[in-house]
Amino acid sequence: MTRFVTGGAGFIGANFLFYLRERYPDDRLVCIDKLTYAGNLSTLAPLLGQPNFRFARLDICDREAVYALFAEERPDVVINFAAESHVDRSIADPSLFLQTNIIGTSVLMDACREYGNIRFHQVSTDEVYGDLPELLFTEQTPLHTSSPYSSSKAAADLLVGAYGRTYGLPVTISRCSNNYGPYQFPEKLIPLMIVSALADRPLPVYGQGLNVRDWLYVTDHCKAIDLVVTRGRIGEVYNIGGHNEMRNIDIVRLICRKLGKPESLITYVADRQGHDLRYAIDPAKIHTELGWLPETKFADGIGRTIDAPGGRRSSPASTGATTRGCTASARRCERQSEKETGKKVILFCQSQKPAVHGLRVFALCHSASSRFSRQTSSTPAMPLKVHGTMAASRKPRRA
Which of 235, 362, 377, 379 is the most exposed place for a label (fewest CB within 10 A)? Predict the structure, then answer.
């Protein structure tokens, strides 16, 4: 079987590819990724060069390139992880999210129709349901989005359902709660806090940190997606949750304890625009129909994320070791900037602007400092903190 995994150089996609390789060693895996700022090809190093693995760098919105790859590889199934996914970025610039998350999804499904009515699975998010003060999201919960990101994912979900009904395309959708685990890009809460704490930098927390999320360890998510793809009912939506509800502030405090860092690093910043207070998933349907339940308790999963190897023989070093190396990389960038400007530069800031305050840590994300100068042109210019004042930085150079 040939499986296409889009967005496979990102966090969940890469973990899913590792899961597939272990679960289906003889299958051909084709990873499709544009390699935006959040894509890291080095994560897939254990797979590169294997005869039954292929990496294709392309944009899922590029219809001609997508069709050419489908014609050449003739996939049996497509699992779509490819998406712009950071809420803060969607608030700053919604257009990229609409293009990738909606148009890109339609291009993939058109290719599936063109080349044999190929099985298509859409990986979505619980954020399409909006805020939920109490109870749990079910598959029947109305869509009620709060950000351009969640709106773009909801639109894509509706489009997937429409392709199934109108064209008979064999589709399924899964909506997951917040994921965490190895290889996550440090714009998201948990890796951002780990990287910042390791560097003894301030830990920015929105509002009072009272927002509640249901946390799902990424390997548990991968197993659930595999079950939906192989045994799920065509045309159905499946919610995937971790039964791990926690307040953001409690997670940050736990990370401080795990790393032996003082809670005085915690810094409260202005809340995000339209910030949902609580998400919580009811995974009863996937449990009843497919027998899936989350296996990883949060206390165990966060320990693996910080300390333990990635959990598979072919994985690179632990997240903790990786983030320590990335911290050193960011410090090299700091020294280079100081040399060029003659001023003290800190590659992290606490701007009150929701789309900015956590983004300075992007310089910590990858194992080579060259990634700092290779962000896509869609990445907004980010401020530098220079001698306690905010100064506009130059926009990152195009790759």
Answer: 377
172: pLDDT strictly greater than 80 = yes
Q: Is 60:32 a contact under the CB 8 Å cutoff?
A: yes
Residue among 129, 149, 163, 238 flagged as catalytic: 149
> Is residue 393 predicted with pLDDT exceeding 80?
no
Q: Is 127 a catalytic residue?
A: yes
The single residue of 126, 245, 276, 334 carrying the catalytic annotation is 126
**pLDDT number for residue 277:** 60
Respond yes or no: is residue 126 known to be catalytic: yes
CA dihedral 181, 328, 187, 200 (to 10 degrees): 90
- How far is residue 281's CA from residue 279's CA, in Å, rounded to a whole number? 7
Read off the pLDDT of residues 222-241 as tens digits, 9 standing for 90 and up. 999 999 999 999 999 999 98
**CB-CB neighbours of 207 under 10 Å:** 15
pLDDT at 268 exceeding the cut of 60: yes
Which of 31, 33, 39 lies closest to 55 in space, CA to CA?
A: 31
Any catalytic annotation for residue 37?
A: no
Are the C-beta atoms of 216 and 43 separated by less than 8 Å? no
Between 224 and 273, name the one with better pLDDT: 224
Over residues 57-75, mean pLDDT: 98
- Residue 278 tokens read as 């609580």
Mean pLDDT score across all residues of the chain: 79
Strands (E), the chain: 2-6, 28-33, 53-57, 77-80, 119-125, 171-176, 178-180, 203-206, 212-217, 237-240, 245-247, 266-269, 345-346, 384-386, 389-391
From the centroid of its chain, how far is CA 286? 22
Beta bridge partners of 77: 3, 119
Q: Which residue has the tokens 């090299």?
A: 332
Sign, CA dihedral 319-301-81-113, equals: positive
Q: Output phi, psi for 126, to 5 deg.
A: -70, -10
Tens-place pLDDT, residues 299-309:
889 888 886 33
Assigned token pair, 243: 């039964």
Please identify which of the residues 33, 59, 84, 127 carries the catalytic annotation. Answer: 127
